[in-house]
Every structure is written in structure tokens, then in C-alpha cells.
Amino acid sequence: MKTPCETASKYLLPSMRALIAKKLIENYKFTQQNAALRLGMTQSAMSKYLGEKRGAVISVNEEIDVLADGVAKKLYEGKMNPEEFVEQLCNICMKYRKDENICKKR
What we know:
The chain contains 6 helices and no strands. By secondary structure, the chain is mainly alpha-helical. Helix 1 (4-28) crosses helix 4 and helix 2 crosses helix 3.
């Protein structure tokens, strides 16, 4: 059995990055390049997230979706630095892990 952090790093975190990336592009009209810069990744990685070649594994509940909306909004407004982004990803991960047993799903 994998630990929760192993499962989260392989499935949950890429899914959250993909969800937030899509929100930046669809809701805030970011280019792939601008969204990639805000999320600390390359445009190539962003393309993989948007094309669902990476990060399209885990579905999320409404509460997690609302948290992802908040992160996207703060990134759009420029009110979140890279350290705060990482902290928010960790918070979302902990919330998901509390609500769902991700170890049993894999």
C-alpha cells in the first residue's frame, strides 16, 4: 500500500494543478504561457495539463472546487506568491485527504 503523500503527489497534486490551470485560462483568459508562469511550470507542461495528458485522474467535490477557484482568483489578482501557492496546494491536499481515502482508491 502506498502512503497518502505518495498517492497525493502522483494523482492529487497534478489534478489540482490542472484544475487551477483550466480555471485561469477559462475564467480569467490567461494564455497558456501566463498561466504556466503563475503556476511555476513550463508552457509545455501546461499544454499537457490542458490536453489531459497529465493531471486528469481525480474528480473533486464541490468544496475542493471552491478552494481551487479561490486559488485561481488570487493568482489572477496577483495576490499569491509561489510560496503561498504551494501552501494552498498543501491545504487542498490535506482537505481532500481528510474527506476522501485516496490510498484505497489506488
